[in-house]
Amino acid sequence: QVQLVVSGGGLVQAGGSLRLSCAASGRTFSSYAMGWFRHAPRKDREFVAAISSNGGRTFYADCVNGRFTSSRDNAEKMMYLQMNSLKPEDTAVYYCAAKWAPGGTYYSRSYIYDYWGQGTQVTVSS
Q1: Are strands 4-7 and 18-24 parallel, antiparallel or unpaired?
Q2: How confident is the model at residue 111 (pLDDT cuts 50, 70, 90)?
Q3: Which of 4, 9, 48, 103 has the lowest tally of Cβ within 10 angstroms?
Q4: Backbone angles phi, psi at 110, to 5 degrees
Q5: Nearest to 106 by CA among 60, 51, 43
């Protein structure tokens, strides 16, 4: 099992940057594919980014591609989401998620993930 704690959210002006962190517990973090999702009011939960277990493969939603970067440090059991050029439409609660996948796969479908962090609010003002 793995437990996830998300941090780093806050209020930022449009064009600004934030970095989210996802801290994991458990001995086998390096065997988990990880993902970032967000949920804005009156919208469905939305895929943001995914990263394979060794960090070698990443995948992004079109709406954040080129602005957001996901990375991980398996030795520290951490995953990060660097968010640049933020827009008001990026306002949402952001979650990290984990799926046992030691083979290097990544996933964009939320239902595939087994473990979820508690979420952190990101608010981008115009």
Answers
A1: antiparallel
A2: very high
A3: 103
A4: -65, -35
A5: 51
Rounded to whole angstroms, how far apart are CA atoms 85 and 67?
Answer: 6
Cβ atoms of 120 and 96 within 8 Å: the answer is no
Greatest C-alpha distance within the chain: 42
- SS3 label, residue 110: helix
Helices (H) and strands (E) in the chain, counts: 0, 11
Strand pairing report for 58-60 and 68-73? unpaired
Distance between CA 106 and CA 58 in Å, rounded?
7
CA distance 69 to 54: 15
pLDDT tens, 31-41?
Answer: 999 999 999 99
What does the alpha-carbon distance between residue 113 and residue 101 come to, in Å, rounded to a whole number?
A: 10
